[in-house]
Amino acid sequence: MHTVKRGTSPLAFTRRAFTLGACTAVLAAAAAATTFPAAAQSDWPNRTVTVIVPFPPGGNTDTQARLLSEHLSKKFGQSFIVDNRPNAGGTIATAQLAKSKPDGYTLMFGSAGQTTILPMVQKVSYDAEKELMPLSIFGTGPFILGAKNDLPAKTMTDLIAYAKANPGKLNIATPNPGSISHLSATLFAKRAGIDLVQVPYKGGGPAVAALLGGEVDLYFGNASELLQYSTGGRLRLMAVSSPEPLKQIPDVPPVAATFPGFKTSSWNGLMAPAGLPKDIAEKLVNATIEASKQPAIIERLTTLGVEPTGSTMKEFNDIVAAERPLYREAVDAAGLKMQN
Which helix (H) or strand (E) holds 180? Predict the structure, then answer.
């Protein structure tokens, strides 16, 4: 029961009570508005999720992205649609990701090319360290030096001798300037002391097609792109970039057997715009780790020459941080300069 003080009119009291009630209602509404996004996030995803792939269909990154997207679709009961955007080495697609709303409905399945290497050699419209959130590495793999089947050279020794005897005659497909494939080719040529004419392509898929069609002599591509052609005589596998031979092709020697210390590899992983809510990030990381442990996916990736990884966010960030000085060294060794 409220007591009205002497000298205070019932009307004044009523006004105060109304004001207090209105303020309470406003505060309650504000609190509800503050907590609403978190409540809304709890039902993610409730519509289609777009997974940007900054390369054409058919290449290493695209193949892995589709495997993961299929698993995520089944896991969450919503469509995860792969959207290939192969322009400017993937920097345009990465910029679109960086500027997109961090709500979990726009993701990217990319590589070190977009996050680390290309920002070292060309002006990009995003800050990878500040605007991108690495979630989980799905798979890692070495590279294979493939040659067209009618190339006179049959071994690495033959190839180097042939290239030195025919300077400027051999060409090699390079999917994107500054890509790991491009750096691998450039560093190999430098170590071997040979002249290889680089022929640019928009991605691994077109580069492999050019090699199979005899348009180019060589391609230093992802194992996942070239292993499927290890039999059938469609092309010749000359060497691998890993320190040891791959178990799938034990007779193909490492480049390091000829040039000690030579080693290149790639990772492919899921990324989001910075600011993605923690609960959504955790769902995506856990689902990617889960996918990398599925027997069918392990078998498929292993067949492609990709090691299933399924990293945590911390492991992903640590790998990216450790790679930066290594790629800076490789970029400098390749003679790549910053371009506007």
Answer: helix 180-192
pLDDT tens digits, 44-74: 999 999 999 998 898 888 999 999 999 999 9
* pLDDT at residue 36 in the model: 36
Domains of the chain: 49-141+266-333 (3.40.190.150), 142-257 (3.40.190.10)
Give yes or no for a cis peptide into 325 (omega within 30° of 0). no
Instruction: State the maximum Cα–Cα separation within the chain, in Å, rounded to a whole number.
Output: 112
Do the beta carbons of residue 112 and residue 323 sit within 8 Å? yes
Distance of alpha carbon 149 from alpha carbon 103, whole angstroms = 48
Burial, 82: exposed, middle or buried (Cβ in 10 Å; 0-12, 13-18, 19+)?
A: middle
Count Cβ neighbours within 10 Å for each residue of 83-102 and write b for 16 or more, e otherwise. Answer: bbbbebbbbbbbbbbbebeb
DSSP for 301-339 reads HHHHT-EE----HHHHHHHHHHHHHHHHHHHHHTT---B
pLDDT digits (tens, 9 = 90+) for 98-139: 999 999 999 999 999 899 998 998 899 999 999 999 999 999
Which residues are paired to 271 by β-bridges?
108, 134
Distance CA 182, CA 29 (A): 56
Q: Is 14 helix (H, G, I), strand (E, B) or coil?
A: helix
In three-state secondary structure terms, 135 is: strand
Residues 6+ apart with CB under 8 A from 41: 103, 104, 277, 279, 280
Type of residue found at 204: G
254-269 pLDDT tens trace? 999 999 988 888 899 9
- Residue 248 and residue 64: Cα distance in Å, rounded? 18
The secondary structure of residue 305, as a DSSP letter, is T
